[in-house]
Amino acid sequence: MSWQAYTDNLLATGKVDKAALYSRAGDAAWAASGGLSLTAQEATEIAKGFDDPSGLQTTGLHIQGQKFMLLRADDRSIYGRHDAEGVVCVRTKQTIIIAHYPPTVQAGEATKIVEQLADYLIGVQY
Questions:
Q1: 0.85 exceeded by the pTM?
Q2: Does the keyword Cytoplasm apply (predicted)?
Q3: DSSP structure string for 29-94
Q4: Average pLDDT over residues 28-53
């Protein structure tokens, strides 16, 4: 399956309205759906946030120029929220999955879908 199919499948669940796959270092976009496009700085900040969340805790999580309040940041997952919408970022062995969910979706529903994809990718050594 191509990388694009993974982001398209996230949107097909109806729980995510934008998604992207980046390299683990955050230096290359591998696929995007729903118009999700990060600046190089945004992608790098997310990639660094998995190992040291202090920067995200200080300045917030930025996606497409929008600041999200950091809810969680550890070596696997980063969650952010802005009003009723949110973002879920999960790091696998080789990728970072970034998914945005709209106000009509509960955070737990979107999180479950993205975390399941991450588990699958980790299981197949990605």
A1: yes
A2: yes
A3: EEEEETT----HHHHHHHHHHHH-THHHHHH-EEETTEEEEEEEE-SSEEEEEETTEEEEEEE-SS
A4: 96
